[in-house]
Amino acid sequence: MSGNTRARAGESSTWTTRRWLRVGAAVALTVLTLLAVTGAWVLQQTESISKNLVNVKSPALSTSFRLESALLNQETGIRGYGATGTPDFLAPYRQGLTDQATYTARLKELLHGDTAALKDLQSVQVAANAWQKTIARPVAAAPAGTPSPLTAERAAAGKKAFDALRGALTGQQQRLRTERARAVEDLNTTMVLRNWVFTAIAVVIAVLTVLVFEGLRRGITGPLDQLGADARAVADGDFDHPITLRGPADLRLLSDKIDFMRRRLVSELAFAEEARLRLDAQAADLQRSNAELEQFAYVASHDLQEPLRKVSSFTQLLQRRYGGQLDARADQYIDYAVDGANRMQTLISDLLDFSRVGRVHRELQSVDLGSVLERTLSSLSVSIEETDASITHEPLPHLVADSTQMGMLWQNLIGNAVKFRRPGQAPEIHISAVREDALWRFTVTDNGIGIAPEYAEKVFVIFQRLHTKDAYKGSGIGLAMCKKIVEFHGGTISVDPEYRDGTRIAFTLAAAPPKAVGPSTVTEATRADTESAL
Length: 534
Description:
Strand content: 5-15%
Number of strands: 7
Distance between the termini: 82 Å
Largest sheet: 5 strands, mixed
Order of helices and strands: HHHHHHHHEHHEEHEEHEEH
């Protein structure tokens, strides 16, 4: 391939679909225009020759024959009148003169612009005038009743003059016949050319149609079908199937972009597979860690609590048996030991309850929060009666949740509201529930001592206390446990910083916990919080 050929091929390879369509349409329109012009010219030629034949050549020849007939009528009338002197023979002569003038004028009109034909007509007129001057007019002027002597005297001259007239007519008619035959031949030739031209037009249109459809198939529909087949192969899971680059430049660019997306998808899938393998490994580690955590819970619930029970029992025994028998400092030490053992038992029990959230209690079912609240209030009835607390609530919904955890949630929130009351004032607690799209928003509002805004986040951290154990009893796990329960059920919990007449805890719960929140997630969080606590 020469350099110019390669350059042209390289240039055409950069043509877009729009450019190919424009060039193809321009070429097709040019060819069709040329064919249309050629066809119009052929039709015009056919029409022109046909009109010339019908309106000029044939009428001219027939008029020439009529002119000859008129002259023959004149010759017959003059010959009869000259031989007999009968006036009736002059009628054909006079009619012949009239017809001669008419046909001559008609021929001049038909042969306008045809010099040779007009010259032949002039020759006929000259010959006719010569014959009429020599014979016709003198004989016609002779008196009627007797034969004209001029007929015999000028018979030879008259015959010669009329023969000259015949010759002029014959020459004229021969030329008109020739021209008419030529016109007929031209008409036949033009009609044959017309047929060939229109046949060629039909063939070219058919070829153009085939070329257009073939060009569209190869340049547009074929590459698009191939691109669609490649894309479907990739969509069906064959991500290693390459995208074929075919067609105009823009379609090749589109195919290249799609292939780039495929390669990127392959890379992302490889990364995702690697991440999945890492997650599987982490899940295995988490299962092992969970098993160790369960083992720790067993040890904490048995091996640690059993010594604490013994310490608590014996210190209480010492307190009952030797209380008042030793000095005041010894009694104080015994009280410290009993209190420390009891608080340690409470702390371990609360820590176990905290670690079990989402791991032990996860029986999700339809729960009537109103009924759960009533059971919780029943279990807190002693502290509620002692403090003369007033607890009201709006209608509570049914949710898909863990009934035990919902009970723990109400117990901690209401228990805190009762415990952290204002001195000398009975607790007033109100629970509300409002539907917000896919979530339910709950608030627990009290008139207690409240929570300062700077501690709104800190109170949900495990073992974080805002007061000393002497002022308010507790392990500092309650709100942390509430947060874990709410998050396990797909919600959030916070302190309302705008409420200043006490404390308002707001939390949301989904109608059904999201699938992403499961035992492994909660257990991992439990393990992290428990390890940080320990």
